[in-house]
C-alpha cells in the first residue's frame, strides 16, 4: 500500500491518497487481521508525514459501500500523540482526515514520530522510548562526551537492588563462560537489567529476526547484558534447541546480519561498531547431547543503537519519505533559542579580545552589569558600522544590553573625550532602533537608551552621559520573554541580513541572512586583519561576503567608493558589482594596465581564475595596499580552487603562504538535488586535480555543510544533434514561463564564448516558432536573449561558463560542455553551481 501525493486536488494544500480502506467499528473487527493492520499503518504513516510537513489532508476511498460515518464510527485506533491534531469527514465514497501542523511547543519534541525504535532496559523488561524519552536519552549522550560518568548512559537510572544486579550479572557471565549446561537445569538468576531469557520459536532464524534487534538495542543503550535463547523466561530452566534443528553457520550468519544492519548514530569521533559475542552452549540430557542454548553477549554502546529506522515520515519532493536515523536525530535535537537565566556576554571572540587589549574594560563592564540578574550583552567593535553608519575614531567598543523588565541599553566605551560624543551615541541608538523596526520587523514598543563611558589611561572609567536619563513609560520595558525573543529575532535580521538581489527583481526590499561563518568573518577586526585569503566552496557566498566587506571598509575607514577597488576576472561580474555603487570594479586585465594611484583597499574575487599573462597581479595589489607602511590598506582575496577553469599559472602565492586563511564550507545557494550533484562532481575534482591546483586545498570538501530542504531539479539529457537540443531548450523555456518563471530566471551556458553567437539566433528562432495557442504571441516577441553583461535585466542569458563565473540564476542549461580532460570536471562544477533551482545538462553524442 503506497501513499501518493494528489497533484490534481481541489484543496489548496498537500493531499495524500491512501488508497482503499474498510471503515466502521464492527466492519474492521470482522476483516482479515493482516489487512486491517496494513491499512491502519498506511493511514498512520500518512498522518505522520503531514504532521511533519505543515499539515494537509489524507484521502481514502471507502471500500465498504454501505458505510455511514455517523452510524458506524471509524474503527481506526489512533495513537495518543495525534490527539487534537485531526478532524474527520465523510464525503460520499471518500473519507477525509484533516491534519494540522505539528506543534513542537505543545508536544515537547520537534517532530511527530510513531515509534522511535530506540530501546532501553528497565528492570527486567525491554521497552521502547517514547519521543520525549528518546530526546532526553540523545541529549544525555551528547553530555556524556563532556562527562564520562558511565551512570549517565542509562535513560532510567536504577537506584535500588544495585548489589543484586551485580550478582546477577556476574552469574550470567559465569554461565556465558561455560561450555555445557544440563537439560532442565534451573539457573540461579532471573531476567534482570542485564539478562534476558528467551525460548526458541519453531523457526530459529525467525526468532532472531523478531526479537534480537530490540534486545540488542536495549542492552547496547543501557549497560550491556546477556540474551540466552533456549532458557524458559518464567521457570529459568534450560531447554535449548534440539541439535537436529541447529545449523551453526546459518544461525551465526543470521545473528551477524541482524546486528550488523542495526542503525547506529554517533555523537563521538571513534565511530565504534556494536560489540557483541555469540556462543552455542551444549545442553546435555543424562550424558547425551540434547541440543544447544544460544547466548549473545552485548557490550554497552558508546552512542545510540536503533532496532530499525525511526518510524517518522515527511512529504518531500511530492513523495512520502521516511526520515533516516541521521535526519531524525538532527530534527529532534534542533534547539530553539533559550533565553539565559544569567548575564551572558557575546560574541566570545570579540569581548575576550577587547578585554585582553583594553585593561580596565572588563572591570567596567562587570560593574555595570551587577544590577542585572539576567540578560544578553552583545559586543561590537562598532554598532555604528553594524547599522550602516561610519565608524568614529576613539570608540573602543559598543555593547547592546537586552534584559527583561528594562529598556535596551547601548553602552559606548571611549578611549578619548570629544564634545561630539553625546550626539554620536544618540544617533547610533536612534538608527539602531529604526533598523530593528524597519528592517528587523519588531512591532513592540521600543527605545534604545545610550550610555557613554570614558576608559581612562589608569584603567578607571568616567561616566559621560547624563545621570538623569530620559524616562520612558514602563510599557517600553521588555516585560516578557516573548518581547525578548521577538527583539532577538529582529536583531538577527539586522546583524545577519543583507539586501538580496531579488529586491531589484520584485521591486521591494528582500533580505537574506549570512551564515554563521560569513558573519564571523564580517565581524573581524579588519584593522588587525589587513590581508586575508578566504577559500570558499561553490555556492558558499564568497561574492556576497566580498561586497559586505567592501561596505564595512567604507564605514570603518571613512572611504569613498573611489578609494576601494574590486577586481575579478570576467566582465559580467565586474558590471554586476559596479551596479552596487560601493567601490570601483575592474577586471584583472584592466587592473594590470593602470596605476590606480588613489586606491587604498583592494578586494579580489574569483582569484583562482586569475592568470599571470599580463604580469604579477598579486605583487601589484600588495604594493598598492602597502603604500603607507605604518597604516597599510585592506587586501582580502576570495577564491575556490575547485572552480579553476584553466591550466595556466594563477599567480596566487603557494598554499602554505596564503596566510592568514579562512574557509567558507556551508553551501547555501543550491537546491537539494543540485547540491547532491555538486558533491559528486567535487569528488571527481578532488580525486583528479589539475596540475596547477594544490591538492591540499581540495581537502576542505570533507568539511562541507549543505543547506537542506530546498526543492529543485537536475536532469542530464542527450539529444540527436544540436538542432534538436536547441528546439528542446526552447520548449522547456516555454514550459517554465507558463509555470511562473521569467526570462531573467534563465541562463544558457556554453563551453566557449565563440559558440554563443552561433546559437543565439537559432535559439531565438526556436523560441518564436512554438504554437501561439500556448502563450500570447505578443508576449513571445518580448523574450530577449543577451549575454551576461547586464545580469539583472529581464532577458535569457546566453554566455560562456567562464564569463558567467561568480553569477547565478534560478535555471541553468549547460550546452554540450567540452574542455581539456584535466579541467573538464572543474568547468562542469562551475556550470552546475550557477543554478539555484533547476539544472539541465545537455549532451550531443560525439
From TrEMBL:
GO molecular function: ATP binding
Domain (Schlafen AlbA-2) ranges: 192-305
Residue span, Schlafen GTPase-like domain: 342-478
Gene3D superfamilies (UniProt xref): P-loop containing nucleotide triphosphate hydrolases, Schlafen, AAA domain
Keyword field: ATP-binding, Nucleotide-binding
Keyword Nucleotide-binding: yes
Domain of life, source organism: Eukaryota
Keyword ATP-binding annotated: yes
Domain spans labelled Poxin-Schlafen/Schlafen-like N-terminal: 79-189
One Pfam family hit: SLFN_AlbA_2
Sequence ranges assigned to domain UvrD-like helicase C-terminal in this UniProt record: 795-841
Family the entry assigns: Belongs to the Schlafen family. Subgroup III subfamily.
Name of the protein described by the UniProt record: Schlafen family member 5-like
Species of provenance: Lynx pardinus (Iberian lynx)
